[in-house]
Input
Amino acid sequence: MMKTIAIGIMLSCLAMALYGASCHSKRIEELDKLGTVRLSIKQQAFELWIADDVSEQTQGLMFVSAERMSPLLDGTERGMIFAFDRARALNFWMKNTIIPLDIAYLDSDGVVVATYTMAPLDERPGQYPSGSPAQYAIEVNAGVWGRIGLRPGDAIEIPSPVLKHSP
Output
């Protein structure tokens, strides 16, 4: 009986490990298919994946490793920019996001309305609200906004490939 239970537990662990690895590698392939944009914020260079449809926005940086988010050789930080069709109240969570992230919410003019450092795997609702209508969100490695001094009220020029205009 104990042997059967032990084998069952091991098979369950193996299945979960394979599922996690499958999700991770699939997400990496999906990231490679996304467009990217380069921009500068407070004199720090960034290369951001563009999430501008519901599917991409829902996945966000789920299952992305710290290694994948490492700065490029030239010091350029990695991240993701979420572009919505209009400004509205936004609220992000960290489901299946295994690394801590900073988020900045921006209004339709690119003005930062709120920033947070988000804890990995934090699925509590309402933890990271925009507070004011936001049309864009930028996620980067935790600590980057503090290091470069990004604060609400700062303006970020939204590159034309990610601009979305209100109807």
